[in-house]
Amino acid sequence: MVQQVTKGIKISVETHFEGSFYKEYRIQYAFGYKVTIENRSKESVQLQAREWTILDALNNIETVIGEGVIGKKPVLKPGESHTYTSGALLSSPFGAMHGFYNMVNLSTSKKFDVAIPSFKLSAPYALN
Prior knowledge:
Elements: E1 2-6, E2 9-23, E3 26-39, E4 45-56, E5 61-67, E6 75-76, E7 81-90, E8 94-105, E9 111-122
Antiparallel strand pairs: 1-2, 2-3, 3-7, 4-5, 4-6, 4-8, 8-9
């Protein structure tokens, strides 16, 4: 698990390998990840958007930008957390992801970014 705190918001990420399959004559490696967003600040915040950078061992880079997470824009009061699961497909058995969430402080209406720490994606059978 990787963790990072930015401006009182703690991000924790756990990953797992889900398997591989062929799609359009190319092998794809499926990875799942679980993210927990914990509000350790003294203010209520809302997640507005996210931006992910997904890298694989073949130097393929994908950027994913969108509103909320899995269709939600959670509001987190001090001490609350939100957990969700999602996934990524890679063209290699190794890769990494990182990014940030766009948040807003609901008391001041100030927007700020929260870093999503870099985490590795790796198929266990491909490791020495």
